[in-house]
Prior knowledge:
Helix content: over 70%
Number of helices: 1
Radius of gyration: 25 Å
Distance between the termini: 72 Å
Structural class: mainly alpha
Number of domains: 1
Low-confidence stretches: none
Oligomer: single chain
Strand content: under 5%
Amino acid sequence: xxxxxxxxxxxxxxxxxxxxxxxxxxxxxxxxxxxxxxxxxxxxxxxxxxxxxxxxxxxxxxxxx
Length: 65
């Protein structure tokens, strides 16, 4: 392999490694956000269950249906 091709391959690998790290950071951030939203949803469901007095959240149709 010539020096030019080797250098080009090393540059490509470096770029790909940087891209993988950036994507990993994005995925980790999304995972944290999903976990936060799941906790919030559970809290809202618990609050609604306490408000209605039972463990099931009633699904009601709006009055215009």
